[in-house]
Amino acid sequence: MSAILLIEQVLNGLQFGVMLFLMAAGLTLIFGVMGLINLAHGSLYMVGAFAAAFAAAATGSFALALVAALSAAALAGVLIEVAVIRRLYDAPHLDQVLATFALILMFSEGTRWVFGSFPLYLDIPDALSGPVTLPGGIQYPLYRLALIGVGLVVAAGLWWLTQRTRLGMQIRAGKDDREMIAALGVDISKLYTLVFALGAALAGLAGALVGAIQSVQVGMGEPVLILAFVTIVIGGIGSIKGAFIGALLVGLTDTLGGIFLPLVLSVAMAPEAAAQTGAALASMLIYILMGAVLVWKPTGLFGGARPA
Amino acid sequence: MKHLLLATAACAIGATAAMADVKVGMITTLSGGGAGLGIDVRDGFMLAIEQSGRDDIEVVIEDDQRKPDIAVQLADRMIQSEEVDVLTGIIWSNLAMAVVPSATAQGKFYLSPNAGPSQLAGRGCHPNYFNVAWQNDNLHEAAGAYASEVGYSNSFILAPNYPAGQDALTGYKRLFEGDIAQETFTQLGQTDYAAEIAAIRASDADSVYFFLPGGMGISFLKQYADSGVDKPVIGPAFSFDQGILQAVGDAALGVTNTSQWSKDLDNAANQAFVESFVAEYDRLPSLYASQGFDTANLLISAMEKADVSDQDAFRAALEEADFDSVRGDFRFGSNHHPIQTIYAREVIEEDGVYTNRIIGTALEDHADVYAAECNM
């Protein structure tokens, strides 16, 4: 294992982490501020990817594709907030899970109805394709570096929004005490719609950015959704900072674990068995990480005290 | 389209008119992530039935959603209340393992248009089970043989960590004469292969073999092409079928893959099939569609010789495989799995559509290794 390979794998872990953060940030805002478990968050990711693929095919421009992804996902977010989610804020979590699970099925079959069952094509823009050579002779895909950059910019923007603006103050206040902030004259229902749209747009952005290097297909959101839930549980529900740290932890653990566990095991086992056992163990690592964090801090790293 | 009763009047052959109707239960994946495969099998199958012009075949089609429990429920219902004679359609090996043994034990015929798990080819073989596609290992064995033939001597191999993935790497190693640089199991459904690609870059392999069906293969190929690693890649046809290639785009161009069928196979049955499939569905057929088409034609050929209620005669008629396969020569081995030629293809762009072209033969008249374990 050379140093170059190690650095490359750390970059891979970071890139995976920041994309996970885009998903987790929206999820943690919605879960933390509104107390809503939104299983359909993965569908918004899929909506973003499909909108981007459609716009890229129609216009040939990746920038327009990103705009399309952001607006389509935000629009879909506003629609489902007004039509469905709004009725669920006071409902028990089980009702929320059932209703948002139904939304997953509707989004999936609706997307299949419109776009068909075969995966769509969405590619990296020419300006960002191919590898670049980093200091030390590391070859790394430029697009993945760009993803890391976009993720960090969004993280900084979200931090500024929640900590330095009036809207952010209302969001944080709404998380702590929604009756009080409503009594103080803030239109809580408009605030919720806005937060939901913001979370949806971030998921859509992640879907479009990741869709360019993956497969744009029905059901692509659900595996990411599970990881995003793990992330916000590790980071502490409702905390943007927690989602960021949690996402990087999950990204690095998952990537480095998948590489190093088989290598470590191959010291004691036959290569084939080490590869199989290592892969099986690596897929459990993030859940082991989550368990360990929860034992140490039951409300997550930045979760604060559990509300009464 | 739950009940599709095909009533075309043009049934001509006098002998068949006297025989009983055949009811076929098709359980396949029509929704969710793997729906493209099921839809292709269904469309190929129905095309053959339609072309036969027969009005004595009734096909009941149901969606298993790629879930074993649902497939089992559907099979029970088809056997007990629909009283079908023949079952077919299942795409995934884990679903086939849940359905096939109990269906054949209840005296139904099962014609597999896709899944070919080793268990059903070896000790678990059954006189009423016929696989029209391949035994799961076949395309991987062909890839190993072809890699040796073109002179690769050190392969980096990867597949998802589940039974078919393990079988794939075993199959590749069975006929590959070179060394294995590294063997890597990825997670099932994994979408990011940056870590594996970095390991490929760092390894001293001269070739890469991967089995990543469906969306996993799309992700891998796009990321591999963008990474700048230029080691040649080989895969089985599952990552290069007609439904997937358009989503991979340029990243797949020139990649070698192994398949028992290709759209440019030079025989009359295949040319007619490709032409009529495009005319009917306005897209090129995939290998899954070709398997569905062959499955239906096998069934029709048996119906012309025997009555389905006479199980022994019908089974003997199926064993003869007396139909014009779109693969050219086709026959069953002793375990009712195909003995067939497997080709090497490469991905090309043709009139703005990505597709495959045959570049050589990987294995001639190849049978699977499990046949010896089958006693029936």
TrEMBL record, chain A:
Mostly located where?
A: membrane
Keywords of the record, alphabetical order, are: Amino-acid transport, Cell membrane, Membrane, Transmembrane, Transmembrane helix, Transport
Q: ATP-binding: is it a keyword of this entry?
A: no
Q: Which residues cross the membrane?
A: 16-37, 44-60, 66-85, 97-122, 142-162, 191-213, 219-237, 244-268, 274-296
Compartments it resides in: Cell membrane
Question: What's an example of a GO molecular-function annotation for this chain?
Answer: transmembrane transporter activity
Q: Please report which protein family the annotation says this sequence is part of.
A: Belongs to the binding-protein-dependent transport system permease family. LivHM subfamily.
PANTHER family assigned to the protein according to its UniProt record, in alphabetical order: ABC TRANSPORTER ATP-BINDING PROTEIN (PTHR11795:SF442), BRANCHED-CHAIN AMINO ACID TRANSPORT SYSTEM PERMEASE PROTEIN LIVH (PTHR11795)
Do the record's keywords include Zinc? no
Q: What is the species of this protein?
A: Palleronia pelagia
Provide the GO biological process annotations.
Answer: amino acid transport
What is this protein called in UniProt? Amino acid/amide ABC transporter membrane protein 1, HAAT family
Cross-referenced InterPro entries, in alphabetical order? ABC_transp_permease (IPR001851), BCAA_transport_permease (IPR052157)
Q: Which Pfam families match?
A: BPD_transp_2
Specify the protein's topology with respect to the membrane.
Multi-pass membrane protein
Give the record's GO CC terms.
plasma membrane
From TrEMBL, chain B:
Which Pfam families does the UniProt record give?
A: Peripla_BP_6
Q: Which organism is it from?
A: Palleronia pelagia
Q: What family does the Swiss-Prot or TrEMBL record give for this protein? A: Belongs to the leucine-binding protein family.
Q: Does the keyword Nucleotide-binding apply?
A: no
Occurrences of domain Leucine-binding protein (ranges): 22-348
Which residues belong to the signal peptide in this entry? 1-20
What UniProt keywords are attached to this protein's entry? Amino-acid transport, Signal, Transport
Q: What is this protein called?
A: Amino acid/amide ABC transporter substrate-binding protein, HAAT family
Which one GO biological process term can you cite for this protein? amino acid transport
